[in-house]
Amino acid sequence: MRPTEDLVREHGDILAMIQVVREMVRRLETAESVDPEHIDKAIYFIRNYADKYHHAKEEDLLFPAMYEAGVPKEGGPVAVMLREHDEGREYVRVAAEANDRYRAGDATAGKTVAANLRNYAGLLEQHITKENQVLYPIADSHIGQPGQAELRWSFDHVSAKPEMQRECDRCKAILAELDPIYLGE
Ligand SMILES: [Fe+2]
Ligand SMILES: [Fe+2]
Q1: Residues 54-113: pLDDT tens digits?
Q2: How remote is the CA of residue 81 from the centroid of ligand 1, in Å?
Q3: Domain 3-183 carries which CATH code?
Q4: How far is ligand 2, taken at its centre, from the CA of residue 131, in Å?
Q5: How confident is the model at residue 185 (pLDDT cuts 50, 70, 90)?
Q6: 166: buried, middle or exposed (CB in 10 Å: 19+, 13-18, 0-12)?
Q7: How far is the CA of 130 from the centre of ligand 1 (A)?
């Protein structure tokens, strides 16, 4: 399987959590209460699965392989993707801080959580579409067979690390727990 196919599959998990997050946002914006523990868990998934696992594979392995294959580092689509990863981290940082205040009883902080998670969801949805439809096809067409084989090895190496497997299992358990609560059976 091509390395970018792993990433497309991970996008499926990330989009599933974004659906949960969108329902949390809807409830927060309509003054229904949302358990701050659930918000923390969604943020844990975003930080560990979407960011430390998935975005790290893109930033540390795929993008460098693309530069090596002649895709420009500056001013091109990869630079846009990197900027969007940072933008996403900032929304999540602000949402996490606001969630601490929300948990402590500050109702207006719930609105800040909602606004930042809404922005995150919108950003990531369009980011994932661009990667699936534009960036990964560029990677596939530029990176030759030796580069693909090297990436395959590196991706498998990352995924096989016991601590990474534990994190991925924990994140998938969070998704399995929150999905029926927010999206029904
Ligand atoms: Fe990305
Ligand atoms: Fe991605």
Answers
A1: 999 999 999 999 999 999 999 899 999 999 999 999 999 999 999 999 999 998 999 999
A2: 6
A3: 1.20.120.520
A4: 6
A5: low
A6: exposed
A7: 9
